Amino acid sequence: MDNSLEATNAKIESLLNQIEQISAENEDSDKLVLLLLDSIRERQISIDSMINDAVDDTFAPSLSKQLKLTENFSRRAAKIMSHRQNLLNLKRTHQRQVKVYQNIDANR
Q1: Which keywords, in A-to-Z order, does the entry hold (predicted)?
Q2: pTM for this prediction
Q3: Which burial class, exposed, middle or buried, applies to 69 when counting CB atoms under 10 A from its CB (0-12, 13-18, 19+)?
Q4: What residue segments make up the domains of the chain, in order of their start?
Q5: What CA–CA distances, in Å, run from 100 to 45, 53, 95, 96?
Q6: Residue 47's closest CA among 7, 10, 2, 13?
Q7: CA-CA distance, 28 to 58, in Å (whole number)?
């Protein structure tokens, strides 16, 4: 397997770990997501190149490994996205509740 693909996989793993650890409100969170998207694009280009450069079936085990990694990355990213969407929904709900209480207090 290509060393650059291994490095990209490691970078994606690291970025997912960082995103899981950082709060959604942290400004660095958005930067990490952008870096993750760039790394995923880079990974896809490497995998496409691996497929296009294949001359026989010897690349099948490597491609199978990459498919498993892709599935793992996708599951983790979906879990992170779902968690963050839930946090945003909860934040909106709390903001609405605060506005209701503020309106009640203002009308007293």
Answers
A1: Coiled coil
A2: 0.77
A3: middle
A4: 3-79
A5: 50, 62, 9, 6
A6: 2
A7: 41
